[in-house]
Regulatory protein RecX
Amino acid sequence: MTDWRGDVEAGVSAWLGDEGRPEPHHGGDRGPVRGDPVPDVSSRPGADRDLGPEADPESVARTILLDQLTGRARSRHELADKLRSRNVPDDIATRLLDRFTDVGLINDTAFARQWVESRQAGKGLAKRALADELRRKGVDPEVTREALDELEPGVEEAAARALVRKKLPSMRRLDHATATRRLAGMLARKGYPAGLVFAVVRDELGAPDDADPHE
């Protein structure tokens, strides 16, 4: 960095770069001398970021994408929405999204598989709920279907039973009808089909306490 101690003009130049360098003084104009007020550069554009040339829109967009992809994968649609919300021009956004896709940083097929595996195991979501989530994230329906088809047969029923069993201890004080309604509602909200919901709830909850076992 320029050694500008005692030289206000050089100090401003070092702060702002060549583009912000004040015009040289000519004629009778005197240069800055000790005791002159120091120009306030805090309000100038770029004063709140690192020194250096102002980033171009493509560099800004690239940084946004890398930041978004740090920690977890995202769908192309999600990333496009983020760039749009940051006012990145469409042509730059499309070019960078294509480039990130070409090098494998954006991969909706891998994203859908990862999402299905994570959300099914972590939240016990059924295929219908998973499909709705991927649709909202802009994943192609065919890509979604392929990801859901990779779930092992019986995984939905096993997950539904696990959810009901986890909830059963809090249902002990409820009457059978109320417990059935609440358990069925929980599974329905997670996307399970009605037939599976009532079969699982009936099996796991058992018959009503006042039911006649000989009926």
In short: The first helix runs from residue 8 to 16.
